[in-house]
Every structure is written in C-alpha cells, then in structure tokens.
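Q: Could you fold this chain for me?
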Amino acid sequence: MLYSLAEYLTQFHSGFNVFQYLTMRSILGVLTALLIALIVGPAMIRYLSSYNIGQNVRNDGPESHFSKAGTPTMGGALILVAIVVSTILWSDLSSRFVWVVLFVTVGFGAIGWIDDYKKIVFGNSRGLSARSKYLWQSIIGLTAALILFHTARFPIETQLIIPFIKYIIIDLGWFYVVLTYFVIVGSSNAVNLTDGLDGLAILPTVLVGGALGVFAYLTGNFNFSSYLGIPYVPGVGEMVIFCGAIVGSGLGFLWFNTYPAQVFMGDVGALALGAALGVIAVIVRQELVLFIMGGIFVVETISVVLQVVSFKLTGRRIFKMAPLHHHYELKGWPEPRIIVRFWIITVVLVLIGLASLKIR
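A: Sure. Below is the predicted structure, expressed as structure tokens.
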C-alpha cells in the first residue's frame, strides 16, 4: 500500500525512491510490526483478562504448569495483526507470493482461533478435534501448493535444492505439490507442539524467520544469487518484508511472553507462524534448510511420534513426557534453563543453515 503510494510520489520528488529498496522496506516492516505489538499488547492482555480468556491446563501435564491456568491466551492474534498490517503496508501487493503467504498464515491462524475458542468457551483443553484440525490444515496447505505449482513461471520454482551441494537439483514435477503440502502442514504442527513453555517457540520462530528473510533477499537478487551459486527466483525478494514482519511481531510478543509469561500465543499464533515458515521455505526453495534451522521443532515433533509409537507397540514410554521439553521439566530442569538452551541450539542450527549459502 505505502509502497505503491511512494512509487507514485517519486514523480514529484526523487526522495521517495528510497522506499523502492527492499532493505529499507524490510527495516520498516520490522519496526512497524514491532511497534504494533508493543503498543497494542498491553491493551490486548487487559481485554483477554477482563473476559477470562485464560489458558486451560491439561490434568496430565507437568504439575508446574498448574499455576499457569488462567493466564491470558490467544495472544497470537496480536502477532497475526502485526504481520498482516506490516506486510500490506510495505510489500509490493502485485506479487503473487505475498498473497499466498498471507492466505496460508491467516488461514492457519483461523484454524488455531477456532481451536482456542473451543478450549476457552467449552472448557475443553483439547479444543478442536484432531480430525477436523488436520482436515482444514490439509485444505489450506494443498490449495497453497496447487497455486504455487500452477503459477510457477520458471523451472527452478518446482525443483528441489540440496543444501551444501552445488550441482544437484531435482525436478519434482507433481511431487512438488506433495512436498509443499507436507512442509506447510508439518511445519505448522511442529511449531505448535513446541509452544509449551514461556517464550520457547517464539524466539526460534523469529530466528528462523529472519534467516529465511536472508535467503529470500539473496534468492531474489540476480547478482547475489549468481555469486553464491544459489537459484535465482524473480520476485521472491518481497518475502523479505514478510519475514521482517515475523521478526518484528515476534520480538514484540516476546516482550510479554518471556518467562513468566503475561500472555500465551495459543494455537492461533503457533499454527499460523509454523505454516508461514513452511510456505516461505518453499517459495525461496529451501525446504531442506528449514529442516536444519528448525531442528528444535523437528526434534520436538519426533519425540511425540516416538513416544506414541513406543507406547502402542511395547506399552513403554521413551521419555518421561512428550514433547521433549516436558521430559526435561520432569527431570527437574527449571523452565528458564530449558528455554534458553533450546534458544542457543536454534542459534547454532540457524548459523549452520546460513552457512549453506557459501559452502556448496
């Protein structure tokens, strides 16, 4: 919106050309989302508290979580508003990629909102049934995959890039739709599973989102992509604005979500942010790098799968409780220690992912 306005105003004053630069618009995107989160956050927390929109704690969870019952939840709606407003203000709205990521993010956010609503209004800590949740996730994920596949303009948009290896590129064909679907839906649920401690999921999301913004900028720039030997995908640079909005809104939310949390993001935030990371990774052709950088999300998901499979097959549990962060809680680790150590691991994994830009 403001990008188009600035483009129009350049005919009257050359100073407005500064808004044509992705770097400037990405910085403004970060700051806009951050300010929205910081300014609206306190009012949102008061509103959620006044209407008793508080967290329901499952009886089978760690005892240390019982004290968190009643803490305002659904704060992820603040993140979504900040992301959408910032993206619309500073992005080139003629880009198909912008509308695809907004569709996926808002769509998964709506699923999470319904899930949170059921938990709060009906007092059911499990919320939306797993079948219904997965059905709607599949519809949105598959729709986005088909849109990206049918609107692809260059072969590279539907090819798989192998990180750290320069000359291996796999043409996916229709399997691109399958891969995209699983990346979006899988990433969404992985972040949701990780969102179990104060601030545990949001900072890794910010770090991975920021790193994907770097990939988007370099992939959308012909000179940088040629120098680094990575695919050049025209138009992908606009994803930098969206990634910047994730960073800004995430940091703003962390201001209130850090231990001890004043508000939780709920499924409305976790499902949306996970799906957003997934679809961005697909657009910038870095699905496998997302798997590396989001290693915490991956391990948390795997811990749940292993726990369920082991219990059904042998009647025994591998972990004291899944996801993995609960296992460490029951081992006696203080919550802040778990959170910070998971953050540190994410920083290392993100650096490894970024290293794939040069080590090829």
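A (continued): The chain has one domain: 2-23+92-240+270-355.
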